[in-house]
Structures are given as structure tokens and as C-alpha cells.
Write a structure and sequence with these properties.
179 residues; mainly alpha; 8 helices
Length: 179
């Protein structure tokens, strides 16, 4: 049932709030010429603000029902850095390519077909170590905001939320844009 909840949440958030909730997607849209660089800055600031506001709310709801919430992370003791970096970049590229194929084609005209298909793809990428490392973020906002609340201050795990999520997203987005 978790897959159904996960996919339903993605579809409903996109339906009610719009689908621009990922800095990687904003970057790719800029590379493709759909938005201006200044729009990327504004969107990423909004995406981070949304994560910083939304994460504690989600955490409170989950805690009430006995569930713990956290963000995507890679264990640096069990996953080599280069494997994690390549995995994050290729996973981000696969996600944005999927969004392009489903969102910018005839399928994109049918929200209730496009969004569930994108949600299922996100779940597949997150739960399958396609590129060698488990649980890629593909959305740098998620591990960054979860680390902020996990520590009560700025992230202390630089390996996950910064290097892997933000740095790897750039070549991943560039690869998707080139495709």
C-alpha cells in the first residue's frame, strides 16, 4: 500500500500545487529554454522554502501515526563516493528524461495518465539501485531539508545533501537536456 500512497501523494501535490517542486526539473527546463535563469533562482528558493515548511508538518503527521519520516540518503561507509555520484546523476537524468517524454508529448495532455506514470517511474528509480547506489534523491531539496530537521540546524552530512544531491544533479540535468 506504500506505493499507492507514494504515487497518490505525488499526483495530488502536482494537481493542487503544480509540478515544479524539484530544482533539477527547473534546471532542465531552463536548459531547454522554457524558463529563464532568474526563474530557476526564484523557483529553487520557493522549492527550498516549501521543503523547509512542509517537512516539519509531514514529520508531525507521520509521528502521530507512529511512522518516522526522513529523506533520501546514501551511506558513505557502504557505497563508494563515485558510485553514489554517478547513480544520483544518472537517476536525475532518467527522471527528467521521463518527465520530458511524458510531459512534453501527446501524453502530457492527459494529466491523469501522465502524472501517475511519472509517479510510478519515480518510485521505481528510488526503490531499485539501477545505477549502483540505493535511494537516489533526484530532488536536492529533499535530503537537504530532511537533514536540516534531523540535526535541528544546518546539515552536517555534507556527503548526501550537498555533494550528491546538488552537485550530481547538474550533470544529470545536462545529460537529460542533451538527450
Amino acid at each position: 500500500y506504500e506505493v499507492l500512497i507514494f504515487c497518490s501523494a505525488i499526483v495530488l501535490i502536482d494537481y493542487f500545487f503544480g509540478s515544479k517542486n524539484n530544482p533539477v526539473v527547473s534546471l532542465v527546463l531552463c536548459m531547454w529554454g522554457f524558463i529563464k535563469p532568474i526563474d530557476v533562482v526564484v523557483e529553487v528558493a520557493g522549492q527550498m522554502a516549501g521543503g523547509l515548511i512542509g517537512f516539519p508538518i509531514l514529520s508531525m503527521i507521520c509521528t502521530k501515526y507512529g511512522k518516522e519520516v526522513g529523506g533520501p540518503s546514501v551511506d558513505p561507509t557502504s557505497t563508494p563516493f563515485n558510485t553514489a555520484l554517478i547513480s544520483e546523476a544518472l537517476s536525475s537524468s532518467l527522471l527528467t528524461t521521463t518527465i520530458a517524454l511524458l510531459g512534453m508529448t501527446a501524453i502530457g495532455q492527459y494529466f491523469w495518465v501522465k502524472q501517475p506514470a511519472i509517479a510510478v517511474m519515480i518510485r521505481l528509480i528510488v526503490t531499485r539501485p539501477f545505477f549502483g547506489a540505493p535511494r537516489p534523491a533526484m530532488n536536492p531539496m529533499l535530503p537537504t531539508t530532511s537533514q536540516v530537521f534531523a540535526n535541528g540546524t544546518r546539515p552536517t552530512d555534507i556527503y548526501g545533501p550537498y555533494v550528491l544531491s546538488w552537485v550530481a544533479a547538474t550533470p544529470g540535468a545536462a545529460l537529460a537536456a542533451a538527450l
